[in-house]
Amino acid sequence: MRVLMNGPSPSPLGRTILRFFYLYFFLHWGTGLLMFWDKLGFTAASVARYYRGDPDLFMNPRSFSGLLEVTHFHLFAMGLFFVVFCHLLLFTPLRPALKSALTWLLGGAILADLSSGYLVRYLAAEWAWLKLGAFWLLQGVSLILFALLLLTMTKKNPHR
């Protein structure tokens, strides 16, 4: 409980734990980028095709149960990701307005990313632009957070 109130420990073990967390996050970030490219592609047409199917390519549309299953697991994982990153952000020397903006951007990007697949599948293919925008916003904000947290960790006293 003390760590939740006082922030990550400046001890060598605490810094080692953070280094591994950042390493795993960076690997997760990179593999997520590769998986999105491999499965959905980086165009609105390819994203729409992934969710809505394409008879010419013998691709079935995503089923509701398939979308729900992916959403179920991502809600937990992304919620945990949000809490960890925003918690670490609280202990940085950044201005409160910047912390708040990054928190809202990250939360909004996660919600848009999780919901946009349903919009593409069940409302219109044009929502693929939201899926692409949410993905790139999520990737960008999380990379900015990663960089800021890494820079903060390298300072002598990150709790100033």
TrEMBL record:
Transmembrane segments: 20-37, 73-94, 101-120, 132-151
Keyword vocabulary terms for this entry: Membrane, Transmembrane, Transmembrane helix
Name of the protein: Uncharacterized protein
Species of the source: Desulfuromonas soudanensis
